[in-house]
Amino acid sequence: RREPLALINLKKKHEETGEEELASRLDHCKAKATRHIFLIRHSQYNLDGRADKDRTLTPLGREQAELTGRRLASLGLKFDQIIHSSMTRATETTEIISKHLPGVKKISTDLLREGAPIEPDPPVSHWKPEAVQYYEDGARIEAAFRSFIHRADAKQEEDSYEIFVCHANVIRYIVCRALQFPPEGWLRLSLNNGSITHLVIRPNGRVALRALGDTGFMPPDKITRT
């Protein structure tokens, strides 16, 4: 819904100067800026917690978040916002990262919560959620993709840099959808805790993947994939 032709009413063009008017209106609807999307997987957390509130970051997870925050700050970019999953491990990761990015606003959303986006192909034996989960979580995660991953608004004048702190399944699905790869292949991608995935969305809608699950800024003994 960002393609310029989809944003204007073609029936209203003037009969005599229609082509000129159409060109002018199309130009007005075209995006001018590039969006940089940084998808951050939450840090290592307590797997023994029964409820979400108990699944807090481990001491190592807190270290990982510090390293991720320093890495993002070192890029020297003017980040516009941090949008994060409302789950405890993502919220805690965001709080630590945000200390390194003072002044950047934080927004919590349920859309980015972890879940089962779509039945993986090929299937795996170690992870088989109930079929209903794909219908419940899948619609929500697809809604997150449509809400957040799109070309810039036509009114946006400068390039933007946004951070999304969420979960491995959500990020893997988003990457497949953004690159127009079969989304059923999402489980073939693997992401470390605290990793950085960088998507670039050009004004014409084309998407490029600059980094996938980067943790090269972490010492080897700090890298986990739980």
From TrEMBL:
Q: Which GO terms describe its cellular component?
A: mitochondrial outer membrane
- PANTHER family to which the protein is assigned, alphabetical: PHOSPHOGLYCERATE MUTASE-RELATED, SERINE_THREONINE-PROTEIN PHOSPHATASE PGAM5, MITOCHONDRIAL
Listed EC numbers: 3.1.3.16
Chief location category: mitochondrion
EC class of the enzyme, as a word: hydrolase
Q: Which protein family is it in? A: Belongs to the phosphoglycerate mutase family. BPG-dependent PGAM subfamily.
Top-rank taxon, per record? Eukaryota
What's the source species' lineage? Eukaryota, Metazoa, Chordata, Craniata, Vertebrata
Name listed for the protein in its UniProt record: Serine/threonine-protein phosphatase PGAM5, mitochondrial
| Cellular location(s) | Mitochondrion outer membrane
